[in-house]
Amino acid sequence: MTDVAGTTGIRTDELDESVRPQDDLYRHVNGRWIDETPIPDDKARYGSFTVLAEEAEAAVRTIIERAQTAAPGTEQRKVGDLFTSFTDETALEALGSAPIEPLLADIAAIEDKDDVLRMVGRFERLGLPSFIQLFVDNDPGDPDAYIVFLEQSGLGLPDESYYREERFADIREKYREFVGAMFPLAGYDESGDRTEHVIALETAIASAHWDNVATRDSQKTYNKLHWDEVSALAEGVDLRHWWQAIDAPAGAFDTVVVRQPSFLTGLAQLFREQPLPVWKDWLCWQVIRASAPYLTSAFSATSFSFYGTALTGAPKQRDRWKRGVSLVEGAMGEAVGRIYVEEHFDETSKATMDDLVANLVEAYRQSITGLEWMTDETRARALDKLEKFTPKIGYPVKWRDYSALPVTADDLLGNVRAIASFQVDRELGKIGKPIDRDEWFMTPQTINAYYNPGFNEIVFPAAILQFPFFEASRDAAANYGAIGAVIGHEIGHGFDDQGSQYDGDGRLQNWWTEADRQAFEERTKALIAQYDALVPTEVPDGHVNGALTIGENIGDLGGLSIAWKAYLISLDGAEPPVIDGLTGAERFFLSWAQAWRMAIRPEEAARLLSIDPHSPNEFRCNQIVRNIDVYYDTFDVSDRDAMYLAPAERVAIW
What we know:
Elements: H1 2-5, H2 25-36, E1 45-47, H3 48-67, H4 75-87, H5 89-95, H6 101-108, H7 113-126, E2 132-139, E3 142-152, H8 169-185, H9 192-208, E4 224-226, H10 227-233, H11 240-246, E5 255-258, H12 261-273, H13 276-291, H14 297-312, H15 320-344, H16 347-369, H17 376-387, E6 390-394, H18 412-428, E7 450-452, E8 457-461, H19 476-493, H20 514-532, H21 546-571, H22 584-595, E9 598-600, H23 602-611, H24 617-625, H25 629-635
Parallel strand pairs: 3-5, 6-8
Antiparallel strand pairs: 1-9, 2-3, 4-5, 7-8
Cofactor: Zn(2+)
Organism: Curtobacterium salicis
């Protein structure tokens, strides 16, 4: 790809000269590509991230298929056998619904609600949906210790808004049809009452859910409780039956974090009030819908017709091998990643990235030092947090051990259940042990990056270190405009509306003066208002949720503005060179826009608008640069241009 973009790192042959960068930077760079590039039938969206993901997927397929003939008993053969169990369609068709029938029979034999709780506990080990999501992380109040978190769950639709908002009425009806179509596939002669039971109960569960703005509030969701306090929240429902059935290590549930306490109270009320047959039908539904991808083509295709086509607009299910690759990566991602790194990662990229990260951190340090709205007291703590950032680049220093995971080539659903049980044991086994700060929460072949506030770390997997985000050999301006802004974005999460509530050691505590926090929030409120006013091209009757997306928007704004400062630092006082007629600033901003190119189906755009904390890509590009003065200087933007934002309305935080 380098030869196409040249040393500039910009594909100038793809620029849409009919759209001025002063009016729409995103479509000036990406408009022709979006218009001329069809979205593949098995995709809901297609762009920079998905193009790289397809390349990584193909590379991983080669690794996995090679593993099918590895020596028996080796880790690689487990990878191959898992893939074989998924791709043997003939065996799956012969089995029909038999793999789930024993569990459905167990549900039919349930005699009381305590048994329902025990069954939901079994679900945790079987990888099936529950009404409580369980996970383990380090304790925000004591970041050197692991703790169990309890999160609201129990819904088959993307989130609670789908059960109440009028704009999702059509989706609700399609969901009802989907439930009604799936029960007969599992051998039930009549599904009418069962369907109504499922829909009514999920709607009631959704009414107890917190909305997606409240669930991202770090303070409100940090409720560290002893088990007797949890029991008081779920009055009249003995949740010990649930966690005892999980077979957790002793003491794992003595103290937990309940992220949405009122949900637990609402769920307990529902559990007391709803009849046993309703709960049994709901349990059956969880088994059927979660197992569908691992059963016959009838199950899988019916599931895709809703979760794929109805929800995202994708007309075609992904090829079997692609779904098999996803299963393997989700189960044994680091076993594959170890080989992916050996075969596809250039170690020189790591050295270049080290320099980029160092310059980004220095740019943040300079920026924080000079902030006019921050007092010295808070500034010292912000700089302390920045100093304690840990960058991880490429791949883990130690790889995950899969020796305790049993896999066979002829039992797909058995493998899926074994994977779930393995993960439960691995996660709950962390309780009481020292924090493993070498652990990664993405595989090296993932096209993404993340910031972890509890670890105060930024992580960049190997696979994202490619064009259009990064190339070690290309001009620095393009690298800083793309991967540099991504680095700045992830560092920026440490200082966004939620990340800024964690200190340099990953502890959730207020390190701000009251005046500084107020000054910070005045700026974030202005950014929220900007995004609330935005209407996506693909969803003309929808608006961006500024409160939901504020964390990512702060990350983008800080990331790009600090990346520019880091680029200047990299020049060490020299003037940015002009290459192929483009100035350094032009290459920087064009690279930024190039990285966000994406074509998206209207259904998927509407779904993401409701649940995704990221803004639509067109606004991740355009709205951010409207707040950055250098953009105006670079393209000579004036009040006559569509992208113009008056200086007084521009937001600068970091």
